[in-house]
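Box 3.1 A note on notation
Throughout this textbook, protein chains are presented in two layers. The first layer is the amino acid sequence; the second is a token string describing backbone geometry. Keep the layers aligned when reading.
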Amino acid sequence: MFLTLLGGAVDKNPTNKFYFLQADTSGLGNAAAQTRWTFWNSCSVVDGRNTCPKVHAAYPFDPNRNFGTSMSFGGTKYYLETRFMFAFMLIGLFFAVCALFLGLIALVSRIGSFLSSATCSVALFFQTITTALMTAAYVQGRDAFRSAGRKASLGRYNFGFMWAAVACLFLATVMFCVGGVTGGKDKTYTTRTGGRRFFGRKKSTKSTRSRGSFIDPERQRRMEKEDSD
């Protein structure tokens, strides 16, 4: 998720290879010969790498707005899908980071496991929406460019990262929940009064037995001394 978000914002290797869609935009307004769309801008392509102008948060995929043209596709649908995609991405990333830190508590507590599972489920919800919007907008955009006789391809890195994040968050949600359900069974025991205690440590009787082993011989010696007197 972080790598996808950094694409287009950081002009360093390997993030300058990350994009959602690359298309032939030659002759379209002020566009370069080839253009790549990221979360932050539309970038030209030099030696297979992004060359991006200024950063704009929630940069929309809409060729008509991006290049000042009047193509037969684009408009409000693509604009809204990619704008909301950026907002949902930030929300999902926030909850994913929270789940990462709560996972440390899950190492020592069942409550931490359940909290991590709940937080992961929220991150999964928003990440799934983000990925679905991404797929809908850019797959349709690619098909539209191809229908217009222009070459277009999806960014395999960004699509791979986004769908992998959905899978990982789903697995994390399930595993944290399973850990919370099964992690405390061996810590439940019955007290002398018949009650049940949780998240506790069973009191050891080793020290009592050890003390008893010293008390009994001492008492026996005292009794033998009294008998001899």
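Confidence is low (pLDDT under 50) at residues 186-214. The two ends are 87 Å apart (CA to CA).
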